[in-house]
Amino acid sequence: MQRGPTGVRKRVALTEEGRLVEVYFDQPGERIVTGSIYKGRVENVLPGMGAAFVDVGERQSLFLSQNEINPELQEQGSGRRRGRAPIQKVLRAGDNVIIQVRREAMGKKNPQGTTKVSLPGRYWVFLPKEDRTAVSRRLGHHQEVKRLRQIADELKGRDEGLIARTAARGASRDDLERDFRFLVGTWKGIEEEAARVEGPRLLFEGLDVVRSLIRDRFTQDVSKVVVDDEREYRDIGEFLRYLHLTELKDRVEFHKGPLALFVRYDVERQLREALQRRVPLSGGGFLSIDETEALTAIDVNTGSNVRHRNQEAAILNTNIEAAREIPRLLRLRRISGIIVVDFVDMASPGSEQKVVDALQEELAKDRVPADFIDITQLGLVEITRRRQGESLATTLDSMEEE
Fold this sequence. Notes:
The chain is an alpha+beta fold. It has helices at 71-78, 87-90, 142-155, 173-196, 209-217, 230-242, 261-264, 267-274, 311-333, 349-363, 392-401, and strands spanning 2-4, 7-9, 11-16, 19-25, 37-46, 51-55, 62-65, 96-103, 112-114, 119-120, 124-127, 133-135, 161-164, 201-204, 225-227, 252-254, 278-280, 286-291, 296-301, 337-342, 370-375, 381-385.
C-alpha cells in the first residue's frame, strides 16, 4: 500500500522466479474503471467519425465506436437480423443505452465504451448480447478445449456467448456451472436495475486492481500472494471464499518486518532499472529502448559480453539474452503498438532462427496479444502488441504530478 494525497494507492507486482514481469496501480478516486457498466445517455452522434459520445454521469463521457455496437442494436437500426446500419440509424441524441467501459482514458482521449457487454467470472467470460463460443488461446490442450466448448454450448442460451478462461482448465462441471449461473444472475440484476432507474447511472462497478488480479491470475501455478496491509489481507480471504477458492487461502501471506514489501522482494530496484533507457543484460550486453508515439525502437548491443572467445558465439549469446528479456520488458513497461528490434548482426541463418525461436517462445507467455511479425530486409525484427492503456512510464509520470 502507498498513501498519497488522494488516498491509499494499491500497488501490485507480479514476479516470476524472482524477476518482476508486471506491475499495476490503483488510482484513488478514479470512478471510470475498465469493466464498469452504466446506463448512459447519448450526447451526440458523429456520422463522419462513425462514433458517438455517451454521458454516463462522470467527469468524462464515453467514446463509442460503430464497431462496438452490439448485434441487437444493429438489428434495430437496420430493420433486419444480422444487419449493419450506419451509427446515425442506430443511435440518436437522448437515447438511453447500456454501455461498458472498454478502456480507461488515455492522455487527452476520452475513455472508450462498448455495448458488447462482457462479464468476466473465474472460469468464464459471459457475453449476454453475442452468440458465440470461444476458449482462451492459452488453453492449448485439445481435449480440454473440446470439453470446455461442449460445456459452454450446453450452458449458454440462444444469442448468448461464453469464453472459457485459462483458469477453467481442469475445473469441475459443478464449478463451471456455478460460475455461469452467477454471471447470468449478475446480468439479470444489471438489466433490472437499468429498467428501474433513470440514466445516466452506474449499474455495475468493475473490480479494483487487487480483486481483479486475484480472480483472473491466482491459480494453482501461483506459489503465493504476499500482502502488507492487514485489512487487504482479510478482504482477500473473504474474496477467495466468495469465489469458492478456499483451497488457495493458505498461499496468502501477511508481510511483517522492518523492510517494505517491495524492497523485501527487490521490486523497487527492478522497477527503477526497467524504466531506464539503457537496460543491462546479464552477460554484459545491454538494450537501448526509445519509446515514441509512433513506435518503440530497441537496439541490442554486445557491450562487454566476453563470455565466449568466439565472436559469433558472443553475438548469439547476447541476442538470445535480449530475445528473452525484451518480451518481459514489453509486459512490465506496458509498451504497445509497433516495436522494432535491431539485434546484433549474425552471419549464420541458424543463429538467426535460434533468436527468433527464443523471442516467439517468450512472447507466447504474454497475456496481451503480442506477435512476432517479420524480419525486414534491413535485418530489423518487427513485433506488434495490443494497446491496453497507458504505458508504465506515462502512468508513473501522471502519479508524480498529483
